[in-house]
Amino acid sequence: MLTAAICGDVFASPPVDSILAGIRAVTGPMGCLLIVKNYTGDRLNFGLAAEQAKSEGYKVETVIVGDDCALPPPRGIAGRRGLAGTVLVHKVAGAAAAAGLSLLDVATEAKHAADMIGTMGVALSVCTLPGQVTSDRLGPGKMELGLGIHGEPGAAVADLQPVDVIVSHVLKQILSPETNYVPITRGNRVVLMVNGLGATPMMELMIATGKAVPKLQLEHGLAVDRMYTGSFMTSLDMAGFSITIMKSDQAVLQRLDAATKAPCWPIGADGNHPPAKIPVPIPPPALATKNGETFGGPLQLNQQGLILEAAIEAAAKAVINLKDALNEWDSKVGDGDCGSTMFRGATAVLEDIKCYPLNDAAETVNEIGSSIRRVMGGTSGIIYTIFCKAAYTKLKSSSLDDITPKKWAEALEASIAAISKYGGATAGYRTLLDALIPASEVLRKRLDAGENPTTAFIQSSEAASAGAEATKNMQALAGRSSYVFGELLAAVPDPGAMGAAAWYKAAAMAVRDKSLHT
């Protein structure tokens, strides 16, 4: 099985530094294979960690698993989600590595296994995020079909049905020749996994397995070589299950049957457990010093430093005040944690601002990125880190005394371009870019027309707010909202866009107020 697993916050991708720590902890001379479920945040964070590890001399390969069979392909840039079938990829890759294969050969086997797998889930209840009220979106007597593992709504809501009807529907969806999710046809041999989502008793999972096997044999003409029943990939306390079908052959069965010390693998052997914590050497922070001097807040702020300090504080406080509203919006279109995630980043910025070199705009933006990267998980954290890094790169090309309003506008444009490049989204995809792109366009237009920079900033913030509100009428094409049907998105703005518009507007108003008093 796996040598290491990297944990993020609830329903959020682990941050880059945690992934790097895992790579450094366990990677030997043969290299490291990262098995990543197909979610935007995971791809971005694991991708950046892989590139960093390669630059440190590690051999790293990545396999993306997208075994979801609930949504009609294609769907925006997000693609098929990684679900419980990923566990079978873990087993195949782990056994191949234990057999002594090279990194490229292990990656090839894992990729082949991922291409042979299809999964679909059914939920009878909504999961409860720690410290939050359980959503009431699923009424009595209803079930969700085609849900993910992060609490997001399913592809469809239907009346509760007998288990054999549900199992028939799920198997037909996975094995549908129209969608061709998996290359499985009559006469093939398969592996079946019935996976509990967290609150489903083993007895009920066994009932589902008992219904699935004869349907696969009699209705679909498939031989079932192996059955795995249990809770392998859960979603907190969600009641329900997912079914995974994998095309099998002798080579795949050899990997699945190979002995493992993983304690919950159904055919696993008992073994010694590794220590709970492994000491990992941590390299010195790259941004801790500049020219041998430790960063810290300047003893006296110049005018630019005072304005920058006011803008940062106002932006962070705006995000903190919007926490509950962002979570509320996100609970309807995503996983309900957008506000909490951005709150962590804003709180860290307020705590760290006393150490920011505020008289140096470029380095301050870089330090904001470091604060965000340290505490913000998931897609939002990595996107804002990329945002700050791109702005820093643009600003540092100018001298300290040459950071003009047009330089700030160019930095915003560079940040938007970087987010679009690495995240894949652009205008109209229902993301934070739908707030930032209109703001950038208005800011550039007003500055080029010779308007007062502060007035231009205020006008661009109004464009950001209007752009965020306009996301109510957009179909999501990126991020977790792209898995949610359009009717559920109607009248709910994109939380990421609303958060971006809030801090942008707060910063603009702070700059205006500070400029009037200096």
UniProtKB/TrEMBL annotation:
Biological process according to GO: glycerol catabolic process
Active-site residues annotated for this sequence: 150 (tele-hemiaminal-histidine intermediate)
UniProt-listed InterPro entries: DhaK_ATP, DhaK_dom, DhaL_dom, DhaL_dom_sf, Dihydroxyacetone_Kinase
SUPFAM superfamilies associated with the record: DAK1/DegV-like, DhaL-like
Residues of the signal peptide: none
GO MF annotations in UniProt: ATP binding; glycerone kinase activity
GO cellular component labels: cytosol
Binding site for substrate: 37, 42
Alphabetical UniProt keywords: ATP-binding, Kinase, Nucleotide-binding, Transferase
Domain DhaL, chain residue ranges per copy: 306-509
SMART domains recorded: Dak2
Domain DhaK: 1-265
Family to which the UniProt record says this protein belongs: Belongs to the dihydroxyacetone kinase (DAK) family.
Alphabetical list of NCBIfam families matching this protein: dak_ATP (TIGR02361)
Record-given protein name: 3,4-dihydroxy-2-butanone kinase isoform X2
Native source organism of the sequence: Cucurbita moschata
Taxonomic lineage: Eukaryota, Viridiplantae, Streptophyta, Embryophyta, Tracheophyta
Gene from which the chain derives: LOC111431479
